[in-house]
Design a protein that fits this description.
The protein is an all-alpha fold. 66% of the residues lie in helices and 0% in strands. The protein starts with 14 loop residues before the first helix and ends in an 8-residue tail after the last helix.
């Protein structure tokens, strides 16, 4: 009994625990390196896929937007996380440029951002200019219309 209280866990720390600890410390380089080594987009191993999503989140939180932008060219998860990060930062110009380049997700995020900040007329112009036939963009705007405003 006397020795039980002095015992401690001497197992090697797993990479996951190391990554979480690095994330808590905001040691982004360490966390990203650990997680990316165990991540794979659309892996049949759901842990690898979840780690891929975690990796994209870490890149955004580390403000590694150029790296996320590069990945977004071929990775839908990077694209979604980048657009969400740009929304969180209120970076309209970047979202607008991405929408002009054909990123429908960026268009939707931009329209939401404009509507959330009471700029529905600007949102209408964006949809008219960048996605006039995009039904989902129109649906997003419809969600922000007040019942008293009527159809526009």
């Amino acid at each position: 009994m006397l020795y039980e209280t002095a015992l401690r866990d001497t197992r090697p720390v797993e990479w996951f625990e190391q990554a979480r600890a690095a994330e808590r410390r905001r040691d982004w380089d360490a966390a990203i390196a650990l997680v990316s080594a165990h991540a794979e987009c659309y892996s049949t191993d759901h842990f690898m896929h979840d780690n891929h999503l975690w990796h994209m989140d870490l890149l955004a939180r580390a403000e590694r937007l150029p790296e996320l932008t590069e990945l977004a060219l071929t990775d839908v998860h990077a694209r979604r996380r980048l657009n969400r990060s740009l929304h969180e930062r209120g970076t309209e110009a970047a979202l607008r440029n991405r929408a002009k380049d054909g990123d429908h997700g960026a268009l939707y995020v931009l329209v939401r951002l404009l509507c959330e900040t009471s700029r529905t007329q600007e949102a209408h112009r964006v949809v008219r200019d960048l996605g006039p036939d995009n039904q989902y963009a129109h649906q997003i705007m419809a969600c922000f219309r007040s019942p008293s405003s009527g159809a526009q």
